[in-house]
Every structure is written in C-alpha cells, then in structure tokens.
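Hey, resending since the last one bounced:
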Amino acid sequence: MHLTTLGRCRKLFPVLGAFALALTLPHRAAADKLDLERITPVPSNESIPVADFFRLPLMSSPTLNLSGTHIAALVSGGEDRTNLMVYELKTKKIETIGLRGDTDIYTVSWLNADRLVFGISIQKRSPFSLCAAEVGKLNYSYPLLQNVGSTLIAVPPKDRLHPLFNLMPNTGNTGKYAEAVTVDAKLSSGGFLDFTGMETMLSGADLDKVTKSNQHHILIRHPILETPDGLNLYYLADKEGRLAFGITSTKGVSTLHQLAGEKWVRCPEDLDEIKVIGSGEKPGEIVVLGARQGGKPRPLQFMNAADGTPGEVLVQDPAYDADGRLYRDPVSQDIVGVYYDRVGPEVVWFSEAYRNLQKVVDRQFPGLMVRIINTDETGKMVLLRTFSDRQPETYHWVDLENHTAGLIQNSRPWIDPHRMQPMSTIKFKTRDGRRLDAYVTLPAGASKQNPSPLVVLPPTTFGERNTWGFNAEVQFLASRGYTVLQPNCRGSSGYHWMFPVADEWAFRKMSDDVTDATKALLESGFVDRNRVAILGTGFGGYLALSGAAYDPTLYRCVVAISPMTLDWEKMIEECKYAQFSSTQYDLFLRKLGDPKKEPEKFDAIAPLRHAGQIQAAVLIANGEKDSSYVISESKELAAIVRRNHVPAETISFLNEAGGIHHLDHKVELYSRIEAFLAENLKPAGRASAPAGTP
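The structure tokens again:
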C-alpha cells in the first residue's frame, strides 16, 4: 500500500462561498455498485438507498490552524475510505493525500500554523502509524511513529513542534507498559512516504528497521509508570503540555499517579467515587466528575491531585451528572467551557467572551445546534459545527472581524433533511421509581389512528447513553416505516447519581429498564404493541438478546450485531487468558463477582442460558474477527432457538470486529435486517410484506 497525493478533485464547486468535495480515487467493484459518486439526494419519489444512510461523510473532524488560514479535515468521496485534506480559506486551494488498500487516515491535529500530524489505521480498527506533514508539501509527509498504536496527549503551547504522545504497551517498540514520549516533529525524511505492505504485521529485519525509524523521532522517553501487578492505562498532560498524570489498574482498581520530577507518586483519590476528566489550570490540579452527593447530580469540579481536596465547582446541573468534554482556549489553554449531555446536547461557557460568541453564532443558525469546534489565535476566525435531529453535521467558518461567514461542507449532502423525521424525547419510569430519558422517532404518517411497528435501540456502548441528534440508523429505520425508541438505562452517563454504585453493573436491571421504556411507549397508542422488535450492537446487542430471553412475549424479533457477550461467566473465563495484558478480567471479577461463588447471579444475566425461552425470531451478525467465544455463543443460542421451531440465523462478515464497519458489509447487513423486520413485523393475517413496506 502506498500513500499518494491526490492531484485533483473530481467535483469542486462553490456552495455559499465555499465548496463541496469528492475525491478522485480508485474504486472497488462494490463501491461502483453503491453509486458513491452521487452527492445529491435521490428524487423524492424514490426510496432512499441503504447506502445513503451509512456511507462515510464527505467531511469529518475539521480543525482550524492557529493563524486562521487553513482548515484540515478528513474527507471521502467515491470511496469507503477517509483521506486528509488541507483547505486554504483565502485562495480556496485544496491539498489532499490518501491511501490505497483497506486503510484510513483517522485523526488529524495541527501542531502550528503550517504543520500537522495525522494517524493511519488498518481495516478500520488498528492504528498503525503516526505521520507529520507540512502545508504545501503533503506529498513529502513522513512517519513519526510506525507499527505502534499511538495517541496524541498534548501539543505544548510554547514548544509546538515537540508534541507528547502515548504509545501502547506490548508492541515492537514498547515493553510491558505504555509509554509517554516527546517526538521531534521538525525533522523531515525529505522523501515521498511509501507504506507498501502496511497491512501485514512487520517482523524480523523489517521490525528492526521500523523501530530504528521511531527512535529517530523520539526526543524524550519520559519516566514509565510501572505497575508490577497491574497495567498502566493512559497519561495526561498539564495545561502547558507537560506530562503530569497517569492512571493505572491493579486487580480491577484504578489509581491516579502524579509525576514529581522523575518519579511517579500515588495519589489518594478513589476513582470508584470520582472520574478524572482532565488536567486543571494549576500544577497538580485535575478536573473531575465529583463524588455522589446524597441524591444530587455529580458536579464537574477542580481537585488537588496530591491530597484529593475538592476545589471550585465548574458545573452543577440540577438533573444530570456533568460528565463531559472540556474545551480549552487554543492560545491560553485555559478551560473556558464544557460540552455534556442533558436530555439533549449542552454547552456551558465559563468565559464571558465565549458566552457572547455562542449567542452570536446561535443567531446565525436558528433551529440548529451550533458548536464551536475551535478558533484561531486571535479569536476572530471561528470554525463551527451545526446539526439537528434531521440535519447531519454541517461545517461553517465565521470571520468576526469582517462580519462574514460561509459554508465549508455539508457532511452528507445526499441526505434531504425534509425527508428525515424529528426525534422527540419522553420520560419513562423504571420499576424502582426513577425517571429516565428515551428518544422517539415516528415514521411519516404514524398516528394513534395508524400505529406503526416499533424497533427498540438500546445503548450501544456500556456506560454511554443515547442522546438527541441526527442518527443514521434511526433515520434508516424510520424511512422504512418503523417508529424507533432509543431508551437509556441505569449505568448510562448522566444518571449515576440516581442509582447505587452497584447498579452501574446491574445488567439484569438495565435490561428491565429497556423493557420498561418499551412498555411505556406501547401505552401511548402510537405503535402497534403486537409488532415490536429490538436491535442492538455491542453492549446493545447483549441487551437486545437479554430482552428477548427475559420478556419472551414482548418482541416479535431481535437483531444483535457483534453482541458483547451472551454469558458473562464464559467471558470472564476467556478474559483470564489475557489478564496480564488487559484490565478486563480483574475488573469483571471485582465489579460482577466470582461466577463460582455467585452462580445464581451469573445465571440471571446470561441470555444464552435462557435461550430456550426466546419466542422471537433471531438474527445475529458477527465479524469474522470478533472474539471466538462470542461467535460460538451466537451459534449456540441460534441452535437452541431453532430447536424450539423459532427462526434463528447467524451471519458473519470478513475482516470485521466489534461491529460492522465497511460500507459494503453495512449495506448487506442492513438490507438483510430490512427484509428480516419486514417478514417478522408484518401485520397479523398478512401473507407477505416486501422489504421497505412494513
């Protein structure tokens, strides 16, 4: 495989003074069939193709350089792959580089006004290389770190060409522990970057060559946070971009450490009680999601790391834990705001200047959520992201000094917002009396007089929440005539204050929460209580199969995509083999308990053991590279269901793990899901239901 300069753009035209972009790239046969070159919506009298919902956005992750002259972003066009683009605002000049084979440029960050770093991944999951590039010379990009998973920790504001990176443990370039290294990004190989053979694991002489190349750019190897009986997890820098903190895990217990000179010192904070969000404003200070406060939402606040003394509260929301992402001013590095989720996305600014800026940009885009991505060093040029429940992300620039603004790119111009459906919010009561959020999207024409079939989408990731905004999977299902319910559950971010600590791992109660939300919506009269499905990916796949097993008459069919597990005892047994390179085994034992000592508990949270109760038709999709025990569990559950004369099938996709990520696979999967739902949710007495007309 080869990193190559994309010499020109196939489509380049002004849109409100800016541009829309499709790149010239070689096409796979599947991509040709999927018509990825079309960037306009299909006619309103045509059904929206499956691919339109799931294809990569034309643009993502844009970022403005400090001088406000250039925007770097990830782009795609006519290909199921992301590449790097640099756009000069004044001249509208575009410079691009891309990759061949099953690779993506997955992240980009500016170092200074004319130099940036970007990461390369393989098969949409494996970080491989981190590279540096200079504006105007992208074809002379060069690798900083190869054959080692690396993430950017910080760019020191006073020494921006010496960024700080985290290196994953147990690679050809690191030992047992993750490392923090300062890299010299001023160096240049002076030649064209060639990654031929990237998709194969390097070994022997090749690996030695790559390791020496890495050493060429590593300026400082910082003190390693050694944890003889555990693992170090990640590092944090202070406001000045200097290595300051590290977090480790031993026997499932996470611990904060502070770097004092050349030594790591253990801090007293209980990380079961608080959550470290980032570094603070002063040396030795952190920002945390504070401890539970007797029935009050948890605050976002400063804390002294050395002794655990709480400091100033930044946000105390009346109804939600302020569990969010900090926004730092690009010049001062002061914490000036935080993004987090309430019933919808929320932003709180601590700076009067940013509060005023938010008011200005909100007025420019009525009816849309407006988020400040970043600004230049003067604060006069601003990069924005706008979106809604019906409008995919769109990127804009605003010049506050000259009172001008323009569109950069609609990320999904082939989506017509007028054909998308609005997302509403409801509150539902759990069986222990708490009130949680759920999101409801009705298809066109649904009413109490014309109730629609329902598809329930539980949260995909353990510990995270469903929230309001444009969701491609939701809109796909709504376009096919289904009401979509996205319930949250205990353990989802924002709700920890409502429940005891033990409920953060109470999987059976989480399944009950999803059931309670479903039954609450059924009482509304807008959906047909006899035509209900549940569909989930990852942790949501586990919850979907749990719901079908524990409430066998509620759902007519169930879809699980790469379910996290179907039997937690088996998962713990498998994790034991990786206990010296992963935290999962000790964490599960500590949080869930020992299966040998609590067999009844583990029986109650294993849908595989209750598969004989499932009455719903089952479809399970796995990636070929999912954990072997999960694939085995999926086949075992399907076999048990079939023995009871209930339809059940499993399907597998090559080169996939932890979900289905390649577009051709997604289109195949969701086309099968469309037909599966149509068949199993057809009205009573109806002999057949063609796909797309439930």
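The longest strand covers residues 527-537.

Sorry for the duplicate.
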